[in-house]
Amino acid sequence: MAIFPKILLKPEVEAYLKSIFKNNELVAAIGPQEAEQKYESLLNNLSHPPAFTTVRVNTHLASVEHIRSLLCEELHKQYASLNVPVLQHPQLPDILLIPVIGPRKDLQKLSKEVIVGAQCGSAVLRGAHVYAPGIVSASKCMKAGDLVSVYSDIEGKCKRGAKEFLGTKVFIGNGISELSRSEIFNSNGPLKGMGIKMIESIYLSPSFDNLLPSYLFLQNLPSSVVSYVLNPQPGERILDMCAAPGGKTTHLATLMHDEGEVVALDKIADKVKKIKQNASLLKLNCIKTFCYDGTKALATSNIENEQEGPPFLPESFDRILLDAPCSGMGQRPNMAYSWSLKEVTSYQPLQRKLFSVAVQLLKPKGILVYSTCTVTLSENEEQVAWALETFPCLQLQSQEPHIGSEGMMGAGLSPEQLKQLQRFDPSEAVLQGMDLDSLQSAKYEDLISLANKDSIGFFIAKFVKVQ
Fold this sequence. Notes:
Elements: H1 11-21, H2 24-30, H3 32-46, E1 52-57, H4 64-78, E2 87-88, E3 95-99, E4 113-117, H5 118-124, E5 130-131, E6 135-138, E7 147-153, E8 170-177, H6 181-185, E9 194-201, E10 216-218, H7 221-230, E11 237-240, H8 247-255, E12 261-266, H9 269-281, E13 287-291, E14 317-323, H10 341-344, H11 347-361, E15 362-372, H12 381-390, E16 394-396, H13 415-420, E17 422-424, H14 436-441, H15 444-453, E18 458-465
Helix pairs in contact: 2-3, 7-8
């Protein structure tokens, strides 16, 4: 039920992705026709949003049921009294799921148009309004208060300030302009604030601007699974090696009941600031943040045992999360991916450097969880195969909860090893659309199954250090 064009990729990247989803091992197992269908499904599904908006309740401050009740009241206001359910995930008790209504085919396109960049367009499809910096073009007579149709420039060819754009554009909804054309394009300083308040999006998703900010954290479902798989315990010392913006960091601290220590690293100062802000907002005290490069986090000489920050002595942590920098090819919705093949394939060496440091920082019998938000073999299953060969001290572990599919063939891992991995694969989603009538008649179990399948692309591997 694809209403948008399949994701736009550079030809070399599309060929690379095709070689992954049609690798010899996979084709031999499922056949060339099914492999081709899987690949085409991936390209189509990446340009559409997941079937549910996922939020995590800060159980450190309030119960899930109480926040669910408050959220239902807020959604009732946003949705003009439409009765949209809020579901609690049965295996992830602090996760709430809000169905995304759409695609809506009854929206009327208006005469006045606003063109936004592809990244801004993707945010709108997940419930965001259009902020002024995201506006590329607007009709010549647009004034504040005008009703306008919003389009995404997926090829990035619209010139800033254009009065009309006849290139490839995708309709994503209607809104009310908060600014006139002249205010947007004749401003001397940097633009700030809302540019278009969305009132009718192709996909109806809630806006979380200042919505219960201390109690809710907007987080994709697979990203929430990671913290449960690591399973941090109160009193332990945990390392989050690439922690920004702090979603998983704060989740780990919450699961530990804010007892113990979660050390969060990121090498970009502004991102570290964001982690601190999120920890403060959620009132979590056990998180310690440091602006530091994770590849250099292992001490190469004697240091004081009492040293709080990096670099750290070997075997300093009970559990480590390496949510590694990656090519991000599992993000949804994404109608246009502009990276070159060189950029896409540049992450494997960095991931291995970080992984090698993590192994040395982990205590014996400690747990290491590796995750990415991409769909490539080189950053996922191939990294697992490399890790098991390079570090005899590591053993692959089964995961709980196991909500995604098993790992993908093509990296030479055994069937048993693939079953221990967790891959959330957008190619497996069936874009069926959702309206209020179908929601009312759907069974809870079917909706949960849909939420588990129709998510962003993600990968999780869990290891134990046996010696």
